[in-house]
């Protein structure tokens, strides 16, 4: 039987403690529920009994380790990690994973007797395990084939790796990623006692190379994403060593090559190829780049990506409107929600399109604490699923729900002195926002910053900090650390209540105030209003007030960028014409127009976002000079190859210099396109002036 990284840490913790430790204290330290700790203790005791060691001693004051000799338990655990799998007592589930990994690693036919010896069981037991493994593989494009030479894995190379990765991540404790030594002990090979596959030095190097890739990309992956990517690398390297390569479509690879993730993957692949003497084909570099794209970000500040994902942003605008309407909550003035969902859904798209599964540890709590919100997301997600081309799992839906939950949490602010709190969270932007919202809604504290673990020391040097609240198990020699769940469980509240003053009265909500003012007043200068209000009333620290630099629809289109009844021969001529209108507005260079056409050729008709409506665009790095939206109405509709929304007669060309400045304009455009009457008026308009009036009526204060 194996114990995971957290259970190992619990044993370490108890073996070093002279006094009994309460389960509630362990739950707080490890930021898991009391039930999880109870399950951990049960598994630890079973593990100790299997190896004829004394179980944990329980008393009214807590649990302690029973050791006949000083340090005996830790010596045993250390020796255990140097043992081979055949020397351990494995559960049937652990044996099936071990068998699968042996087949994955060796790549060719393996004799049943060899597998039985490696697992330390009889041939009959191994055959039973193989039957179980075959049942688990029934829904995967992977099978176990056999002939007189033995058995081997056969099927889709991506799926072969993904099956092993998914099973490992179900039990993995992602807190192991902070230290290379912890990662090595918890890695997929050492967990199943395949120490010959990877040395500590090699695992340390792979760990360091992935950290360097983060820095190159200007990103910080969540602990889950980091561990999943590390494990994928471990599996991929062994398959490549045996000449089993995952294929990739050439057109798709051509698109990937221009991305920042591909460049980071190239550097990492080059360094690993030299050190491990493994050929890293171009297709595998492409898959590694996709892995980077599929990683969730831990940092609250958004990285700069080259894709606009404008079609997805349109669907996000619709989703926000529909959920707001259903829950009778006005989200329209909260720009951070739009921005955060854009950056959440980018890696989600890559995961779904590439069959990359992800587990959300907060799913049960999200479903129980926000049932109406979770169901509203589930009910209204169809537009995004349709665009992506696949349904979203409940784990993914819970990540989306978190962002709405962080907005709906009542945010209250007072002017009295409060302790300065630094939040440390590596679990993603949405989770960080939710933690911030819950802490500030429940306690009289001043959150000075939200950082990831690697930013901790810099933040402490920059801010006066009284307490550190962390979602990971960390310690600090100068500042008290309190470990909490992002959702602030009942056990967290009991601990926090002893340190902070709970809030009892509802204070002014800044976003709500601005929303009320915008609905009932004519605001001539929104930025100045925010500045004046923040000076008169310290509602938020300045860094938390969103700077309204985004352009509205009325700011990014003029008559020179509108054309009616153009006689396009086909979709390509129509896209070029929409691009030319952007150029007339001084928004793009010639190369951007050509890139708009290439995007459709390589990515297909995904730019057709509604019945007869297309949104051609390209990357900001392809010659975009400023935010702009053009309008082109065709004399005769043309086909883009979309199965439902062809033919197209209305094109809105889009250009943007980054991933944020166009969002307000796109949100205004979405409102127009969601209004069937306005769309028909655009089709019937007799002049540019009439079209401009229809479009620019959105975004005006009223």
Task: Walk me through this protein's architecture.
With 702 residues, the protein is an alpha/beta fold. It folds into six domains: 5-80, Orthogonal Bundle (Arc Repressor Mutant, subunit A), CATH 1.10.10; 95-294, no CATH class; 310-408, PRD domain (PTS-regulatory domain, PRD); 420-496, 3-Layer(aba) Sandwich (Rossmann fold), CATH 3.40.50; 510-544; 553-696, Mannitol-specific EII, Chain A, CATH 3.40.930.10. It is 52% helix and 9% strand. The chain contains 31 helices and 13 strands. The chain has a five-stranded mixed β-sheet with strand order 9-12-13-11-10. A hairpin with a 2-residue loop joins strand 1 (57-59) and strand 2. It is globular and about 90 Å long. Mean pLDDT is 83; it is low at 410-416 and 539-549.
Mean pLDDT: 83
Radius of gyration: 28 Å
Biggest sheet record: 5 strands, mixed
What share of residues are in beta strands?
A: 5-15%
Shape: globular
Q: What class, by secondary structure content?
A: alpha/beta
Low-confidence stretches: 410-416, 539-549
Domain tally: 6
What is the terminal separation in angstroms?
66 Å
- The total of helices stands at 31
Major sheet: order of its strands?
9-12-13-11-10
**Strand elements, count:** 13
- Helical residues, percent: 40-55%
What's this entry about, in short?
The chain has 702 residues and is an alpha/beta fold. It has 6 domains: 5-80, Orthogonal Bundle (Arc Repressor Mutant, subunit A); 95-294, no CATH class; 310-408, PTS-regulatory domain, PRD (Orthogonal Bundle); 420-496, 3-Layer(aba) Sandwich (Rossmann fold); 510-544; 553-696, Mannitol-specific EII, Chain A.
């Amino acid at each position: 039987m194996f114990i995971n990284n957290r259970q190992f840490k619990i044993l370490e913790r108890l073996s070093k403690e002279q006094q009994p430790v309460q389960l509630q204290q362990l739950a707080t330290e490890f930021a898991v529920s009391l039930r999880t700790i109870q399950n951990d203790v049960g598994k630890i005791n079973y593990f100790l009994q299997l190896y004829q060691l004394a179980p944990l001693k329980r008393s009214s004051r807590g649990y302690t380790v029973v050791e006949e000799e000083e340090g005996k338990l830790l010596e045993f655990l250390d020796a255990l990690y140097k043992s081979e799998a055949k020397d351990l007592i494995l559960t049937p589930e652990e044996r099936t994973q071990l068998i699968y990994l042996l087949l994955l690693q060796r790549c060719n036919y393996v004799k049943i007797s060899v597998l039985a010896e490696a697992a330390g069981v009889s041939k009959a037991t191994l055959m039973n395990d193989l039957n179980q493994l075959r049942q688990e593989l029934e829904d995967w494009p992977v099978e176990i084939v056999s002939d007189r030479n033995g058995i081997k894995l056969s099927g889709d190379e991506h799926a072969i790796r993904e099956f092993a990765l998914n099973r490992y991540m179900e039990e993995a404790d992602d807190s192991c990623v902070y230290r290379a030594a912890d990662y090595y002990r918890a890695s997929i090979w050492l967990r199943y006692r395949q120490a010959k596959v990877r040395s500590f030095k090699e695992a340390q190097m792979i760990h360091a190379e992935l950290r360097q890739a983060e820095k190159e990309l200007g990103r910080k992956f969540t602990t889950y994403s980091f561990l999943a990517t590390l494990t994928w690398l471990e599996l991929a390297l062994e398959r490549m060593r045996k000449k089993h390569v995952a294929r990739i479509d050439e057109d798709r690879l051509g698109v990937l090559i221009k991305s920042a993730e591909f460049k980071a993957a190239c550097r990492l692949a080059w360094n690993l190829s030299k050190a491990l003497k493994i050929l890293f084909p171009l297709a595998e570099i492409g898959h590694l780049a996709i892995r980077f794209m599929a990683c969730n970000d831990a940092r609250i500040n958004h990285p700069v990506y080259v894709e606009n994902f404008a079609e997805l942003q349109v669907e996000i605008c619709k989703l926000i409107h529909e959920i707001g309407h259903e829950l009778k909550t006005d989200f329209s003035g909260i720009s951070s929600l739009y921005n955060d969902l854009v950056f959440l859904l980018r890696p989600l798209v890559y995961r779904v399109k590439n069959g990359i599964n992800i587990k959300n540890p907060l799913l049960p709590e999200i479903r129980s604490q926000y049932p109406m919100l979770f169901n509203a997301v589930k009910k209204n997600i169809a537009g995004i699923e349709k665009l992506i081309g696949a349904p979203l799992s409940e784990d993914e839906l819970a990540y989306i729900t978190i962002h709405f939950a962080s907005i709906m949490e009542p945010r209250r602010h007072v002017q009295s002195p409060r302790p300065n709190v630094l939040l440390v969270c590596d679990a993603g932007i949405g989770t960080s926002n939710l933690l911030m919202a819950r802490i500030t809604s429940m306690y009289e504290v001043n959150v000075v910053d939200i950082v990831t673990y690697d930013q901790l020391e810099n933040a402490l040097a920059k801010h006066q900090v009284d307490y550190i609240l962390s979602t990971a198990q960390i310690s600090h020699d100068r500042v008290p650390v309190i470990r909490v769940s992002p959702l602030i469980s009942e056990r967290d509240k009991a601990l926090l209540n002893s340190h902070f003053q709970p809030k009892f009265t509802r204070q002014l909500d800044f976003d709500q105030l601005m929303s009320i003012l915008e609905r009932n007043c004519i605001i001539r200068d929104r930025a100045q209003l925010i500045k004046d209000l923040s000076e008169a009333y310290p509602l938020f620290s300045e860094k938390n007030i969103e700077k309204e630099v985004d352009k509205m629809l009325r700011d990014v289109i003029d008559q020179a960028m509108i054309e009616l009844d153009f006689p396009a021969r086909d979709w390509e001529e129509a896209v070029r014409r929409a691009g030319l209108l952007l150029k007339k507005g001084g928004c793009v260079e010639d190369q951007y127009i050509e890139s708009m056409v290439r995007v459709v050729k390589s990515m297909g008709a995904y730019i057709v976002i509604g019945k007869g409506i297309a949104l051609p665009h390209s990357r900001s790095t392809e010659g975009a000079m400023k935010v702009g939206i053009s309008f082109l109405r065709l004399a005769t509709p043309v086909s883009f190859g979309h199965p439902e929304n062809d033919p197209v007669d209305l094109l809105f060309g889009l250009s943007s210099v980054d991933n944020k400045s166009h969002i307000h304009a796109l949100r205004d455009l979405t409102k127009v396109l969601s209004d069937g009457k306005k769309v028909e008026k655009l089709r019937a308009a007799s002049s540019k002036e009439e079209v401009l009036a229809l479009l620019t009526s959105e975004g005006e204060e009223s």
